[in-house]
Amino acid sequence: MDTAPLQGAKIVVTGVTGQVAEPLACALARDNEVYGAARFNDAAARQRLEAAGVRCVVVDLLDGEPNGLPADADYVLNFAVTKTNDWDVDLDANSGGLAWLMEHHRDARAFLHCSTTAVYKPMGHHVFAETDPLGDNHGVWPFLRTYSICKISAEATARWAARRFDLPTIITRLSVPYGDRGGWPSVHVHMMSNGSAIPVHIDAPSVYHPLHERDILRMLPAFLESATVPATVVNWGGSTAVSIEEWCTYLAELTGLEARFEPTEHTIDSVQLDLTRMHEIAGQTEVDWKDGMRQMVAARHRELLSS
To answer: What are the residue ranges of helices labelled H in the chain?
Structure first.
């Protein structure tokens, strides 16, 4: 089911300094003309991207139309997200900024808007399909109180803009991305190394679908081919469901650190996914989660590897 890798295309990647978008843009730049959009507050990130052949363009989606980006791009990958915890700022950037972006690129062959499984209403150990109820999943975390609602709002904007501009669009609800650039499992390694307990929901286990950056790159062409009007919505995660408890126990085995868990109501609930639609579009993921997490530890915490 593999689709041929993208080659010779003009591609815009927003939020390009982020954990997911940076390695994706760098990989795509080997065979494509890639424009990376961000505020670029991190000079080192810009240097890495430019060294990989990415053309960096300073864009703040709060400012309106992103005129510095090529309007004739073939594909647009929107990984931008604003998380200031200010409702006005976050709604304007995540929803309003997306509307400007889609209007600017109305002639693209396909538009991918990266959303999140945090849009689903917490329902314990329900296995979520794309048609299930939406709700405020991350509001339980004070530092991300706007996140879920703004992501839902942005999905609504993407749906409207796909119809308004006749722009083939796919909305991907991403689970737990990870890789050499880090991710939630890498944060857990840091917590274990600091002796901190790892919060898990009292309704154990806390199940997600960790997705390695190599699978993100491999599945991208199939997703873009599946962009439609009206927009297609698809869950995006590793084919194997894994709990925080399970992956932290494995990371502890790799590093010799202790994994201590702190059950609480004040953390996000389990979000296990029905991946039927993803498998129909792009097939099964290929990176085994244990192999991927071992590679992540080797890339980011090599000194902790016990074997």
So the answer is: 21-28, 43-51, 87-91, 97-104, 147-164, 184-193, 213-225, 244-255, 276-282, 289-300
Which amino acid does the sequence have at 196? S
Q: Which residues on neighbouring strands pair with residue 37, listed in sequence order?
A: 14, 57
Is residue 219 within 8 Å of 5, Cβ to Cβ? no
Strand-pairing partners, residue 188, are none
pLDDT tens-digit map of 88-143: 999 999 999 999 999 999 999 999 999 999 999 999 999 999 999 999 988 889 99
Q: Shortest CA distance to 238 belongs to which of 205, 220, 213?
A: 213
The 8-class DSSP code of residue 273 comes to E
Contact 58, 117 (CB under 8 A): no
Residue owning tokens 């989606």: 61
d(CA 162, CA 213): 27
* 168, 111 Cβ separation under 8 angstroms: yes
Q: How many whole angstroms separate alpha carbon 100 and alpha carbon 65?
A: 5
Q: What is the DSSP letter of 96?
A: I
R_g over Cα of the chain: 19
**Alpha helices (H) in 133-258, listed in sequence order:** 147-164, 184-193, 213-225, 244-255
pLDDT band for position 306 (cuts 50, 70, 90) = low
What number of other Cβ atoms are within 10 A of residue 91's Cβ? 17
Q: Are 162 and 231 in contact (CB under 8 A)?
A: yes
Name the pTM for this structure: 0.97
> 138 vs 40, 98, 145, 154, CA distance in Å?
26, 21, 6, 15
Phi/psi of residue 14, nearest 5 degrees: -95, 160
Give pairs for 93-98: CB < 8 Å, separation 24+: 93/60, 93/61, 93/62, 94/61, 94/150, 94/151, 94/153, 94/154, 95/150, 95/153, 95/154, 95/156, 95/157, 96/61, 96/62, 96/157, 97/61, 97/62, 98/61, 98/154, 98/157, 98/158, 98/161
